[in-house]
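thread: overnight batch results

M.L. [08:02]
morning all. the overnight job finished for the chain we discussed friday. pasting input first so we're all looking at the same thing
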Amino acid sequence: MVKGWAAARAAGEVRAGGVRRFCLNAGGDVVVGDGPGGVGSQGDGQGGDGEGVAAVEAWNVGVRTPTDPAAMLAVLSVSNAAVATSGAYERGAHIVDGRTGAPATGLLSATVIADDLTTADILATAVFALGPAGIDWAVLRGARGVLALTDAGELLGAGVIDFAHPLA
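M.L. [08:03]
and the structure it wrote out:
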């Protein structure tokens, strides 16, 4: 959770410096500001002022498939938000279910979209520990959206999740 806190602080400094359009990736935890602009931008770094051409209003944030590091589970469309994912696929069974004292079971990964990275990070870890029951719980506690992959391979979601591309 320290990584999420540090990245949230860094994003605050970026915003305090007047930068609106940014994407900060801290080892897979992501904080984004306004969309990147892109098509429609006239080079001012703010985007959206091209005649007749809409600017890119959101960032594409990939969510890795926990069983294949080269594959994407989903690509989210996100602006002015944070995205954090928890799972056991990189660091092993390091998240414990506080109710049982045993490693968390039920999910392969839990991704949370929230207003800030500290909230997203804490809620993603809690969802992973709680299992599928944690998905709706997290939405009631500040998650904009939750996307989780069960041990059985079922994709679950709650809240508002905007996908940049349809799921395969």
